[in-house]
Every structure is written in C-alpha cells, then in structure tokens.
Amino acid sequence: MNDEVRRAADILRRGGLVAFPTETVYGLGADACNASAVARLYSVKRRPADHPVIVHFASPELAFAWGREIPDAAKALARKFWPGPLTLILKRSDKAKDFVTGRQDAVGVRVPAHRVANKMLELFGGGVAAPSANRFGEVSPTTAAHVRADLGADVDLVLEGGPTDVGIESTIVDVSGPAPMLLRPGHVSKQDLESVIGKLRERSGDAPRHSGGLERHYAPRTPARLMPTHELDREIARLKDKVAVLAFSRPDERVEFWLRMPRDAQSYAKKLYASLRELDRAGCAAILIEAPPAEPEWAAVRDRLERACG
Ligand code: TXA
Ligand code: MG
C-alpha cells in the first residue's frame, strides 16, 4: 500500500489527478492550490466551473488554516467528528482561491477517516480538492472498480481501499453564516450535530450554492421512482414492462430483477450506491424503490433516494 500512496502524493505534487478511498465515497483528488490541476479535475468530472469543491486535509489545524473567523461551533464539531464524515463550510482565508470555492467567500473543508486517504494527505501535506469520483450528476463510487468504470483512463492513479464504510457522501454543515445550517444530511445526523452545538438553523434561500442541492443528482440512468410499500405492491400487480426493484421484502417472482435491502439505515446506506448501479445495469424500463421509514435515522438515505428519483 505505502508505495502506491507515495506515488499518489507525487502525482498530486506534479498537478495530476488521483482517485482515492475515503470512509464515505471515493474522491477524485487534485492539489487544491494548483489552478490547472483543479481545472483538469472539473473537466474530467464534467462539472460546471462555478460549483465549489471540498478540500481534504490530514489534520484539523491544516483545515482551519483555509478558513477565517472560525466560530466555536466549528471547533466543537471538528473536535467531536474529525477525522470523519463531516464537511464544514467556513469563511475562507486567502489560501482558498476562487477556483475551489466557485468564487464564493466560503470554503468546504474535511478531514476524512480512512487509512489510505489519511496517509496520502499526510505525505502530500497540503489541501486536496476532491469531489466524488464520478461524472457530474451520476451515482457516487463506493469501490475502486466503480471509479475505473466511470473515469477509466482520465485519472492518473486509482488508489485501492476496498468498499467504503459509510457509503454516502459526508454531512455538510455551513458554519460561515449567522448560525450553523445543515446543507446535506449524512452519517453524522442532525441529532448528532445538535447534541454538540444545539439547534441548527433551517435551510433557507441564502444557503451557498452546492451541487448536492440540485434536484436531480446521484441518479441512475434508468428512470427511478420512490413509493410506499402498498403502492409498490399495486404497481407490481399491474406490471407490463420489465422493472428492477429495490425493496426490504423478499423478491416477487413477477419482477425481472430484485435487490433486497437491509432494515437498518447504516447498512442500507453502505449498500445503496452499488445497488443503484446494479439496478441500472439490469437494463429494465424502470427502477421501483420502496420508500424507507420516516424516522430521523433514515434522513440521509431518504435524501439520496429522493435525488436519485429526481
Ligand atoms: O463525502 C464527501 O463529501 C465526498 C468525499 C470524496 O469527501 N465528496 C463529495 O464531494 O461528496 P462533491 O463535490 O461530490 O460534493 C460536495 C458538495 C457539493 O454539493 C458542493 O457544492 C458542496 O459540497 N460544497 C463544497 N464547497 C462548498 C462551499 N464553499 N459552499 C457550499 N457548498 C460547498
Ligand atoms: Mg458528488
């Protein structure tokens, strides 16, 4: 592992692109100080240039150097959840250039928790700009094989780190405004956050731009629909086309392709993106997804499913 990780740090230093595992999803990394490396990152990702990107660091000290006027809430969250699946949006310092912030006055920073990512970040020493290592708008990769299938020869190196643990993207909290605001739900839940910093502000119109906030995102190519259990049963009873189903219950033999999902939210999240990819490959006319329970621990999964269904 160590030789590959050293190679990765060298490639980053020379302005190349490295896909690497984190505990959430695989990221596509570039030196966050190198304008042309980040430009290439955006073009491989096919991402609009005005979308900001998260910068990854080996330690909270390095991460906070990219921000200014760091509020106590940010420090408290970092102490509790870093390294880990949490991104903080901070007012930026002069280290964070327009090409990583999408010209906003705020920067997204994160200290991941994955031995391969942390080793690479430590050897590299600086900030690594990394969106999820998929093309814009598609399902995020949770294995190195997903990355190779999506980006192939467009990256200089794909670091292997096994299937990711969390399976969905980091929780994003904006601490650059008057009060902390949840921008993207994730493994670190609203309840987890509020237990550290108290009540979060509701999302509002002045929230910074972020692509995870676009309506249709994390989406398979096959049209997907989210529905409650009774509607799924009804839909199956009157099927005409071949469909693929993602559900909690046992397969129904009238359905062409069926994936059964775990009943706890964390195991579900871990399997979600690989499952969506599999359903997509089944070549059916539609994907039908059984809606998960309304409980708070399912908030992040529900968010991703709603986006997958546009
Ligand atoms: O788990 C993750 O966060 C993964 C891994 C690789 O770390 N990364 C990831 O990056 O999901 P990406 O680019 O696919 O999604 C990052 C989200 C986007 O919605 C982006 O717009 C938002 O974070 N974001 C980044 N910087 C921001 C900023 N300065 N202000 C507001 N939103 C920001
Ligand atoms: Mg993404």
Note down, in words, how this protein is organized.
With 310 residues, the protein is α/β, with parallel strands linked by helices. It has 2 domains: 2-197, DHBP synthase, CATH 3.90.870.10; 224-308, Threonylcarbamoyl-AMP synthase, C-terminal domain (Rossmann fold), CATH 3.40.50.11030. It has 11 helices and 13 strands. The chain has helices at residues 2-13, 35-45, 60-64, 72-81, 98-101, 115-124, 144-151, 190-197, 229-237, 265-281, 299-308, and strands spanning 18-20, 27-31, 54-56, 86-91, 106-110, 128-129, 157-158, 171-174, 181-184, 224-227, 243-247, 257-260, 286-290. The strands form 2 sheets. A 9-stranded mixed sheet has the order 7-1-2-6-3-5-4-8-9, sandwiched between helices. A hairpin with a 6-residue loop joins strand 8 (171-174) and strand 9. Helix 1 (2-13) crosses helix 6 (115-124). The longest helix is centred in the C-terminal third of the chain and has 17 residues, at 265-281. The chain is globular, with a radius of gyration of 19 Å. The chain starts with a helix and ends with a helix. The mean pLDDT is 94. Threonylcarbamoyladenylate (TXA) binds next to strand 4 and strand 5.
